[in-house]
Amino acid sequence: MNKGKVYLIGAGPGDPELLTLKGKRCLGEADVIVGDYLADKRILKFAKPDAEYIYVGKKVGCHTMKQHEISELLAEKGREGKIVARLKGGDPFVFGRGGEEIEVLRRAGVAFEEIPGVTSAIAALAYAGIPVTHRGVAASFTVITGHEDPTKDKSSIHWDKLACGSDTLIFLMSVGHTELIASQLMKYGRSPDTPAAFVRWGTRPYQETYTTTLENAAKDVVEKGIEPPAVFVVGNVVKLREEMRWFDNRPLFGKRIIITRSRTQASRLANALEERSACCIEIPTISIEAPSDDYAGMDDGIEHLDEYNWLIFTSQNGVNYFFNRLFEKGKDLRSVGHLKLAAIGPATAKELKKYGLNNDCVPKQYKAEDLVEEMRPLVKAGDKILIPRAKVARSVLPEGLESMGCDVNVVEAYTTHPDKGGKEKLLEILENKKVDIVTFTSSSTVYNFMDQLDGRTELLKGVQLACIGPITADSCRKYHLEPDVVSDVYTIDGLVDAIEKGVH
């Protein structure tokens, strides 16, 4: 029996968080993903790593595949027994041609399911501060295609009834037909001074909103260079934009920010910045990997934990790599029950909390010098201290503790390596002035970023540099680059707050 199945998934209007929970689950089960032009690729992070991705995007003047070819492709993959996720921007049944694809699947005997998505007809306007209905302003709305089947002899849109038959009119795929739409609406009674707006790339950090009137809409398309994809809305609800806008008036809206953290860590910083409407570009400059010496040093420390008095962590990575190895060795949290614990900052302390462990020492300032001072009254000569951390790190902490008479054992919990996979993309972005801010969360991100520039520091002219603390900032200064933003709180949240306050 053929186990193949095709899920037609509404991928939403762009913001990956607007993908439904069911859509996310089915995407994660798929063997093959067939993606549209408007299906934001950021949601592919929910897919299986080995899933096959096939792009079939269609936009004005450029069709990767014809519609019948896409439908046959879905049927073919389904007949092969594959689970297929057909990602369609917005909702598959709102001018998404989902019905046409289902007709082919049914004839081919392939199982299918349609998973509704959030349509841009509502979401794009919401992100622009334009509600499709509002008490006392609009009690109805209509969604209309702005791009009818070109093979039809006669329009199926009843302009005479539509023009004044609904309070809010929303046209999808309409930019190239604005003049026709506006003229028809005015011909059948819609007032020329009716407020109107275009929302381009709705719900994304590079969203653009243009307000106009029905009479001036077609002219503005030309004069302002408005291009697809855009939603065109006509109605008095447009007047509510200034009062209700919330997305595109944030301080970081539209700011293009490069994140240089490792691929596994980048998402937390990206999410925090995108919450403030920034446009994040992840270009990892480092990768975090297991120790190069096969855990020899850390294994020895784990085997002799009963001899230690303190366990000190200087990063979240150190915490996770240490405990993962501890568990792999067949041990559990009882092995550290007798130890006192120290963390260099709240993020590291929070990571320890995930293992149910409280800290005995967290400095008020989150750097090695401050941790040394905080521990001075807590340790005594002869105390044995284990520090699992990166292979390459500053010597301030172990040397400071040793000066107090402590026996310090620094073991390699993980190592960082340069990640040059994004070098070509990085140079292209900088050369074309497509970035506003570069973030650095450690000295290693600075060093590896600069290594990829091959000495071309002139590419950073006009680009703001944001560093997580003074140590990282000093690393920038070694290249004669003065950071524009240095966070006083050396955490991701602190860096994001500092960027919001310090950018211009």
UniProtKB/TrEMBL annotation:
EC number of the protein: 2.1.1.107
This protein's UniProt keywords: Methyltransferase, Porphyrin biosynthesis, S-adenosyl-L-methionine, Transferase
PROSITE patterns: SUMT_1 (PS00839)
Record-annotated Tetrapyrrole methylase domain positions: 5-217
Gene3D superfamilies xref list: 3.40.50.10090, Cobalt-precorrin-4 Transmethylase, Domain 1 (3.40.1010.10), Methyltransferase, Cobalt-precorrin-4 Transmethylase, Domain 2 (3.30.950.10)
Pfam short name (any one): TP_methylase
GO-annotated biological processes: methylation; siroheme biosynthetic process
Name of this protein: uroporphyrinogen-III C-methyltransferase
Record lineage: Bacteria, Bacillati, Bacillota, Negativicutes, Veillonellales
